[in-house]
Amino acid sequence: MASPAKKKTTKNFPTFDAELNETICDAYNNADLTLTLKLGFRQINPAGGAASGTYHDYGDATETARNIVKWTPGSWSRWKTNFVSSAQRYWHGKFWLINNFPVLEFEDKGVKYRHNVYCRFKIIGADAATGTHHHVIDVVRLAGSETFFGSHSTLYDSRDTVSTHKKTDSAGNKIMQRAHVHEIGHLLGLGHSAEGTSACPTSGDTNASACYGSSDSEMNSVMGGGMTLRASHAYAWRMAIAAMTGKGTIRKPSDNRSWAALANMLGTSYSEADFTSNDWEAMTKRHYPRTEAEVTANAAITRRPSR
Asked: What is the dihedral of CA 262, 34, 284, 188, to 10 degrees?
C-alpha cells in the first residue's frame, strides 16, 4: 500500500483556527500543528473624550475604580505590537505531542514512520473594528499613579505585558508574572492552576486567590501567579489534534474542564462519544518521528542518528 500523501489540513474552531502541516515530515521532522488566535483589540478611554477618568476593576461597577488616561495613536500601536509579539513568543514551539495511533503515517527513503506533532502558535492582532476575530479584548490605559488593575481574559490593562510581583513562595522569593501570557492561557481553554482542588471553589468565582495556587508549584505556574510553562498547558493543541484526527481523548478528569467548556472551544458538532480513551501525550522536549517497531516498543526517540 502506498504511503498517504503529505498534506496540509485546516480546521476552524470557534475559539481558534488550526493547521496541520504534514508536508515537512521526514525522519527528523514532525508535522506542525499551528493554532492561530485572531484577537480584536478595543480601546477603553475616559468618558466624554476626556484626557483622564476612571474605570472599574474587571469592568464591574461594584469593584474599585482605577484612574485611566486616553490612548494616543502611538501608545496604542506600541502596546498592540508588544502584546502580540511577546505573547506569541511565550506560547510558540514549546510542546511536542506523541502519536501513539495508526494515523499520520508516511514513508521516507523506504522506511515507514509515524510522525509526532510540533505545537506552533500564532496571534493575529488588529483593531476590533477591522476584520473578524475569535475574541475581542478591551484595553484600558492606566494612569501613572495606578499599580493594580483587575483584568480578565477579555479585559486587559496597558501594564499587563510588564512583569509584576504576583505571589511569594515558601522561601520568601517573589513570584513574577506578565499577566498577558496568563490571559492567553485562558483563551486556549486553561483554568487556574488550583481549579479542581478543594482550595478553589467548584463553581462561582474562580478568580479567588486560592485558585491561583498555594503550593510553590501551583503558584509558579503560568496559570497561577508565575511564568512556568508545563506539559499540561498543551491542552488546546491536544484537543485540536484529537478533533482533527478522531483519535485521542478530548477530556480527562485531571483537565478540570467541563464538557460545556470544551464544546465552546471545539464546537458543538463534537461529542464525548466521538473519541477513544487514549491520548496525545504532551512533552516539552523534542521527540523524533518513530518507525512502526519503535511505536510498538513504546520507544521515546529523542535523538535520531544520521543515516
From this structure: -30
Nearest to 87 by CA among 46, 146, 36, 134: 36
Q: Express each pLDDT in 24-46 by its tens digit.
A: 999 999 999 999 999 999 999 99
Given this model, what pLDDT does residue 2 score?
Answer: 46
Total-model pTM:
0.92
User: How far is residue 247's CA from residue 76's CA, in Å, rounded to a whole number?
Assistant: 43
Own/partner pairs for 47-52, CB < 8 Å, 24+ apart? 52/143
What are the residue boundaries of the structural domains of the chain, listed by start? 11-199+206-296
Alpha carbon distance 56, 10 (integer Å): 40
Tens digit of each residue's pLDDT (9 = 90 or more) over 177-186: 999 999 999 9
CA separation, residue 104 to residues 48, 107, 129, 286 (Å): 57, 11, 39, 18
Rounded CA separation 164/141 (Å) = 16
- Give the residue ranges of the chain where pLDDT is below 50: 1-2, 253
User: HEC states along 163-220?
Assistant: EEEEEECCCCCEEEEEHHHHHHHHHCCCCCCCCCCCCCCCCCCCCCHHHHCCCHHHHH
Consecutive H or E run containing 125: strand 117-127
pLDDT of residue 261: 73
Residue 285: helix, strand or coil by DSSP?
coil
CA-wise closest residue to 122 among 16, 31, 221? 16
The DSSP letter of residue 162 is S
